[in-house]
Amino acid sequence: MVLFEIKNLSFSYPNQSEKVLSNINLKIEQGDFVSVCGKSGCGKSTLIKHFKSSSAPYGKLEGNIFYKGKDINDVDDRTQAFEIGYVTQNPDNQIVTDKVWHEMAFGLENLGLDLQTMRIRISEMASYFGIQNWFEKNVSELSGGQKQILNLASVMAMHPEILILDEPTSQLDPIASTEFLHTLKRLNLEFGTTILIIEHRLEDVFPISDKILMMDKGEVIAYDTPKNIGEKLKDNDMFVTFPTPVQIYAKLGQVGECPLTIRDGRKWLDKYIEENNINVNETFLDVNQSNQESNNSKNVIEAKNVWFRYDKNGNDIVKGLNLEVKENEIFCILGGNGTGKSTTLSLLSSVNKPYRGKILIDGKDINKYKSNELFNGTLAMLPQNPQTLFVSDTVENDLLEMFSTMKISKAEKEEKLKQVIEETEISNLLKSHPYDLSGGEQQRVALAKILLLNPKIIFLDEPTKSLDGFYKNKLAKILNKMKQNGRTFLIVSHDVEFCAKNADTCAMFFNGNLVTKQKTREFFIGNNFYTTATNRMARHIFKNAVVIEDVIKLCEKN
Amino acid sequence: MKDTFSTYHPIVNFIFYIFVLGISMFFMHPIFIIISGVGALSYVFYLKGKKAIFVVFAIAFPTFLLSAILNPLFSHQGMTTLFYLKSGNPITLESIVYGIVAGITIAIVVLWFSSFNQVMTSDKFIYLFGKIIPAISLILSMVFRFVPRFTEQLKKVSYSQKCIGRDVTDGNFLQKVKQGIKIISIMITWALENSVETADSMRSRGYGLRGRSHFHTYNFEKRDICVITIMAVCFIWILIGVITKQIFVLYYPLYSINQLSVYSLLSYILYFILCFLPLFLNVVEDIKWYYLKSKI
Q1: What percent of chain A has pLDDT over 90?
Q2: What is the ipTM score, two decimals?
Q3: How many CB atoms lie within 10 A of CB B110?
Q4: Fewer CB near the terminus (10 Å): N or C of chain A?
Q5: CATH numbers and ranges of domains, chain A
Q6: CB pairs below 8 Å between A and B: how many?
Q7: What SS3 state is found at A297?
C-alpha cells in the first residue's frame, strides 16, 4: 500500500524566485525504511516538512501530497497528530516538559486520551525503549542519547503510522547514534512503522534502509535500493560520503548490486582479487615517507605527568598524562565518551588547573602566561558547539567584535578580515544571523572568529560532530591550508575516518591517559577495532591500506 | 532518608499543610504554638538531618528576633505599662509578650515551609494546580524545564568565550559589564530561537486540539482516605472549639487564656496528633520495616 504519494511538488519561500523544491514525484510504500540524503541546503528538510501540515513551511506550493490517497490538507489535525510522528535534530528543543514521564504523556494528553489508556501506552513504550530506570527523572539529568530516545518514545506512544526524522543523530556521539538507528530499525521490523529519515551517517544507514532518496538542488536525483544507488551516483560529489564498500566497489569499475557492509565488502574483495589475479604487493604505498620531516621540529605543546580531578574527593579524570605535539602538525586524540578528552583540552587551555604536573605551551609554562596573553596570538579553542562563540546579530559584527580589544588601525583590520574570510570561505554568509546558519557554516564562521586572534595553536573539540560528509571534506581542506601557513592543530574526535585522512599523528585516549601515540598510518594499522572502515575491509589482503584511495591504488597498480 | 509522608497522595500532603499552617498562623494559643513548634522542628530535622540547623539559626531565628524587637517599639496597647520611651510612648508587658509569640509563630511557619518545599515537589504542585487551572500546570512544567537548560547554556557560552580570551571576570569594570551584556543578549536570542522549535514540536504532537486530558502517576488509596479523615477530625474539633470559645487566647488589653477543661485538653491532644502526623507515619513505617527485615 502506498502511504505517501507526492505529485509534481514544487516549492519556493516567500519573496524568493528560486525554487527550493522543483517537480518532485515520489511514492513511499507502507513499512519502508527510506533514507534521504543530500548536501546541506539541497531541500531535503524542506521536503520532509511538507509531510505534515503543522510543520509545513510558508511559501508558494505547487503540486499535491497524498496521505493514504487523500490530499494532506484534507486530513484533519487529530489524525495527523496521531499518525504522523516527527522527530527533529536538536534533542533538547523538542522536549516540552520537565519530567520524563510527563514528556511521554504530553502527546497523549493533547489527544485527550483517558488516564487508563495513557498509563498502558506509556508503560508499554517505557519498557520497550528501556526508559523504566529513568522514568521519574528530570529531563535535565539525561544524556543527549537518552533525550533523543525519549523524543522517539513519546512520539511512538501515539502509535504513528509513519515516523519522520530530520537528522536525529547529528547531536549524538557515535555510540548513541548507532544505538538510536538500531532502535529505529527494530521499530520498523517489529511494528511495520514506516520510517523516513534524513541522515548523514550513510555507513550506518545504508545497510538498514530499503530505499535511498538522493536529492540535489531541490530535485530527486535518485530513488533506489542501497545496493543499486551507488552505481548511478558514481560521479556525484556526494559520493565521497557513501559507505566505504560502496565507494571501493564503484571506483574499481564494478556494476550491479554492491556490498553494503564490511562483511560483504571483505567477501567481495577476496573474489575480486582472485578473479583479476592481483598480487599483494604494497610497495606502492609510501608508508614511511612522512616520518622524517617532522622529527626535528620543536614541541609546541608539552604535558608532563599531568593529573587532574574536579574536586578533592572526586575521581581522577586525567591520570599522569604525557603529551607532545610538534609544531605545524595535525594531532588527533581519539577515544570514547567520558574518557577525559575534553577535560584534557580544558587543562591545556588553562581553563582548569592540574593539581600535579607541568604544561608547557610554546615552550613556556602555562602558569607564567598573564591572563589574556595566552589567548592573544598563541592559543584558541573551537568548542564542541560553535554556536556558543557567537555574540552578535550578524556574522560580520561578530567578526568585528574580535577587534574590540586589539589596538590596530582600520586598514589593518580590514586587511585581516578579508584574509580570514577568504581562508574560511564565508564571504556569502556575512549578513546572516549566526544562529540561522547550518552546522557546517557555523563551524567555519567560528573558525574565522578564532583566526582573527591569529593563534599558533588551535584546539578543535569534536569538529565533525554535526557535519555531513561534504562539509567534512571542506573543513579538512581549510585545516590543511592553515597548517601550511604554520599553524598547529590539536583535535579531539570520535571520527575515525576524518582523523585517518587528515591527521599527521594520532593518539588513543583511554581512562585518563594516552595509550598509544603514533604516526597516523602506523596507528591505524596497529589497531584492530578502532580503525577505519577501509582498513577493516582490506586488512586481510593489504595490511597497510587505511583510506579508500590506498585500496584503489593498490588494485590498479598490481 | 525516605519520607513516608511524601509518598501519600499530593492532596493529602496539601491538606496537611493547609491545616497546620492555617492554625499556626491564625491561632496564637501558647500551648498550640509549643505543639506546632516542636512538631515542625522535629519534622524538619527528620527530613534534612544536619542541614536543618542552618534553617533554624539562619532563617527561623532571625525572623523571630525581628518581630520580638519591633512589636513593642511600634505597638503600645496593653494594660501593664513597664516604662516610657523618650518620645513618651509606653512599653507594655502585653506588647512584649505578643511580639515574642508572634515572632515564634513566624519562625514556626518558616520551619513548616522548609519541610513543605521538600514534600511538595514540583510535579505534585503541578498536578494539584493542573486540576484547578489546566494551563498553569503546563506552563509551570515548562518553566521548570527552561531554568536548568538556560543556566547550562550560560555556562557553556561563558566557557567558550573564556577560551578565546573573553572572560567575564577579566579586565576593568566597564569591560566586564560590556561582556556580561553581550552574553545576556545572545542568551535571549538563543532562548527565543529554541522556543520556536519547541512550539513546533508541541504543535506536531497535537497541542491545541480540543479536549486535553491529564496524565499523572498518583493513585488515591485507602490509606489516603484514612489520613484525610484523621486530619479532618482534628481540624474540625479545634475549629469548633475556637468558634465556641472553648479554647481562646487574648493578648490585649490583658493576657488571658481558657481554663483547662475536657474539651480543651482533647483539643491539645488532637492538635498534637495533627502536627506529628508525618512523623507518626514515618515511625510506623520504620517499625514495619524492622519486623519485615527480622523475618527475612
Answers
A1: 28
A2: 0.82
A3: 19
A4: N
A5: 2-225 (3.40.50.300), 300-532 (3.40.50.300)
A6: 164
A7: coil
